[in-house]
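ok so for the tutorial part 2 we go from a plain amino acid sequence to predicted structure tokens. step 1 is just haveing the sequence, like this:
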Amino acid sequence: MDLQLKDKVALVTGAGSQIGYGKTIALTLAEEGCHIIAADIDLDGAKQTAAQVTALGRQSLAVKVDVTKKPEVDAMVAQAIKQFGKIDILINNAGASSKERPFMQMTEEDWAFDIGVNLLGQIRVARAVLPHMLERKYGRIINTSGGQGVPGISIYGAAKGGVVQFTRALAKEVGGQGIYVNAVGPGLAKTGLTHNAPKEMIAGETNTSILKRLCTPEDLAPVVAFLASDKCSYMMGQLVQLSTA
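step 2 — the prediction. this is what the tokens look like for a chain of 245 residues:
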């Protein structure tokens, strides 16, 4: 299927990790014809992803951003619009977990980190991009949820649960103005988020899967590409949950 994404401009946050969802999503969108803004707190990683996009024959821009800091988010959006003239697609992918450990061992600083990055970070980036999209009466926003109900990352999961409700409410607010807002909920994968996770946590998630394996970035990226396209014409405010359980 031709998703008709040629020359669309996509901003992908959390695109720096070379084993993460963001990089694979960025490259998949580039293969479909998108120009890519690869944004990450790790600028070197973002540059690596941007270079791979360029190698696919698409334009790219690497930007350093901490999604918990409004000035950096605003600067990222301004830089993207200055170079490309527009942002058609936002992939709100940046995420992090303070620690994988039981709730009673977490501190309020851990709570603030998990909520600040995973919920408020996505809200902040959407808020920065939306005025431009609303002015053009066109946009696709795909937020990232997942990780709910998993022992050891309780506050991370709570923040991601908030993303689902934010997605549903925002879709109702801006859907009539040409902005499609949806979310994806991938399962745990061998990404940077779980790189240092306890082996028993990974084993438990693997064993409960019908396929007896974790989700992969390659499982998720085609779903995101569809949601980012105009082929997704009657899906709004939905969570697409990738799960085999």
